[in-house]
Structure formats: structure tokens, C-alpha cells
Amino acid sequence: MATLKELSQKKEVLTGGHRLCAGCGHGIATRMVLNAVEDPLVVSVATGCLEVATTIYPYTAWRCSFIHNAFENAAATISGVEVAYRALKRKGKIEKDMKFVAFGGDGGTYDIGFQSLSGAMERGHNIVYVCLDNGAYMNTGIQRSSATPFGADTTTSPAGKVIPGKQQFRKDLTAVMADHNIPYVAQASPHNWKDLHEKARKAFEVDGPAFLNILSPCPRGWRYNTPDISQVLKLAVESRYWPLFEVENGKWKLNHRPKKYVPVEEWLKLQGRFRHLFKEENRHLIDKLQKEVDRRWDILLERCGEKKEE
Distance of alpha carbon 26 from its chain centroid, rounded? Predict the structure, then answer.
């Protein structure tokens, strides 16, 4: 396990000077993932905040081979590059070892890019796919996605007189990817750098496809105080809304069990997108979300072979 000092001395693959928002999780999470790789990289990035903010023509923040893809085909693109690499290596035209990674937001992963992602995982390409989950289509105006939390206010699930925010619970994509029976799947948060670094290292080392789902707050869409990003991430985990776990060759493992019960409303309080839920007429929606968080937590404990709380 690398130390923080060692990681701080590594040459950054994603440089500073990009145009991601202050308080955005994408830059932090991406740098953490890339710091876990030693081999040369080919990176594909779906259209979204990460791509738009790091590749404004004629500039780039990437010190590696980089491919920009449409919203829906980052996984297909990187799997094609990986196949071409293996063919060239068999013919002796390439000698060095290389790693292949795709980054996509939840819009380009949970929704538009799911078919491409599922196909790449099923075919068994030796790639890593990283979902930077900020819970909406932030780059195009904060529209809801299937990763958007229940009750959240977005431009396509607006909180008002007709509906009090998004009416559906978010898709559990990490579990869906685990059901693809790939070598490695993990859910992580940038506030726990050791856990994320170790999971990224494992993802790049396995022989076959790996999937990382990383919570990546958006200050514009979540409407939190930008310096509070670490606290927002920590409360997402401690409230068990975003549990930390991994699935290695089909075996589920819980990586962090909160020491005390933290109600999900403690996480909601920090975000303006949930402000309407604290009105008296909407309080029942917080209770509804809490029941769903508790239900999913119990399922996760069972999968991981852990005892349920009394």
C-alpha cells in the first residue's frame, strides 16, 4: 500500500489547470484512480463534465493517450482499443505492457452507456471502467438520471406543487455489475483515499474487466458549500446511503461498517437539492428514503456474510 508521501511524488497523469468546478469530486476521484497505475495508460472518457473541462481545444490536461467518446460508447471504444493492442502485441509490434481505462458519469454509465458497458463486461475485455457518480446529467443542465437519489430536485424532476423531486429510488448499478460475474467490482468514496487507492490498484491488476463506482459530488447540482465536499462524502458513507464494499470473483466484502447509526437526513441537510424535503408536508419522504436505505443495507450485510444490526 503506497503512502500519501509516495503518491504525492508521482507524476500526475491528470494535470492541474483544468476547468472543473471548485469543490467538484471528478478531479479528485480521477487523480486517485490514476495514481494507482504504474503502466502506460490509454484513457477513454465519455462526453460529460470530465471530458469538457479537461480537453478544451487546443489544450488538454491529460499526460497519456486519450480518446474522447460520445455519451454512450466509452466502454465500446476502450474495449476496441484493448483488442487492437492485444493483436499488435501478438504480432510483436508492441512490447510494453499497457492499461486501459474508461471514465463516464452516471448519465453515460447508468443510462445512455449501459448497453455498451454491459457488453464490454460480458465479453471479458481486460479494461477498467470507472463511473464518476454525481447523481444527474450535470454537464447538460442537471437533469435526473437513474442514479439520482429519491426526492432530489433537478431540472427534470423539479420540486414544486406537482411533484416533490424525483419519485424513484436510484438504480443499484454496482450490484448490477457484480451480477455480470466479472473479476472485480467495487464501490468507493474519495474521502477515504486508502480504500479508493487499494480498490483502484486491484481493478488494474485483475485479469479481465473491472468496474469502480465512485461517489463524486457536484457543487452546482447538489448545492453544497464547496469546502464541505469531504464532509458530504463522509456522511453519504456513514449514513449508509453509499456503503463501501467490493466483490472479488463473486465474493462480497464490506469495507466499512459505521460505528453508529447516522440518519440519512444528516446527509440530506448539507445539500440544497433536498431542502424542500424538510418542509412539514414532505417529511414523510425522508422517512421513505430512510426505509429504503435500511433495506438495501440489510441486503448488503447478508451478501457480505455480516450480522444485521439489532
Answer: 9
